[in-house]
Amino acid sequence: MSGSVAGLPATNPIEAPGTSEAAWCGWLPTLRTCPVLNTETWASAVIVAAHPDDEVLGAGGLISLLASAGIRLRLIAVTDGEASHPGPGDPAALARRRAQERTEALLALGAADAEVLRLGLPDSGLTGREHDIASSLRNLLTGFDVCLAPWEDDVHADHEAVGRAARQAGRPTFFYPVWMWHWARPADERVPWRQAFQVPLPPGVVQRKRAAIRCFGSQLEPRADGAGPVLSAAFVSHFTRNCELVFPVTRQ
């Protein structure tokens, strides 16, 4: 895991203590001033995820809203997330489990009809592969109105590579942040708040998203090597709000 946002400390900001959800809650009224994302003209959308669960954490509510509106959805899974549990174990078995967790999460979101395409690239090995990913995305985005992808400045190497690839693919794209909610701070100058769009989530959608997040047991349970879960309760709390945020791609 590495990042490229200027001004971040040399130590890994993902592993460092993050910003609490209480701190973000105090700033949410400011986020409510962002314009609401207009999806009325969308007939189809591609959601790109570096790992299973990225798309649910960052844009699960939006996916649920699009599915309920009858919009055609394609989900492109760049990796199967097989490297989330270092040490002894069967990466192939973990990949199968994470794929099944995604299937269950999409069902919880009401998006079980979404087409899922798995590229099978190596988890934690996407740095330097963005041109290959972009080449695949150009073909897989053909005929779709819009792309949703991890933010290219999310300070996770895989997220950033996939975000840059989505930009290169050349379709209208919106980035969803994931790890930003951990390392950034309210009013953080490293985040393009003025470009952001909010996605308000009705109570029913919030409940569906929370149920979808709970499907990722492999990431929420303590790991066998004695380490804590990949996704701590404090981190997950950033994604159970009644709104999401996306950034439009503004440069090619």
Please explain how this structure is put together.
The protein has one domain: Rossmann fold, CATH 3.40.50. With about 250 residues, it is of the alpha/beta class. It has a 7-stranded mixed beta sheet, with helices on both faces. The chain is about 35% helix and about 15% strand. It has helices at about 20-25, 30, 55-70, 90-110, 130-140, 155-170, 180-185, 205-215, 215-220, 235; strands spanning about 45-50, 70-80, 115-120, 145-150, 175, 195-200, 245-250. It is built from 10 helices and 7 strands. Residues about 1-10 have low confidence and may be disordered.
Classify the beta-strand content into a percent band.
Answer: 15-25%
Euclidean distance between termini CA atoms: 25 Å
Principal-axes geometry comes out as globular
Supply the number of structural domains: 1
The count of helical stretches stands at 10
Question: What is the structural class?
Answer: alpha/beta
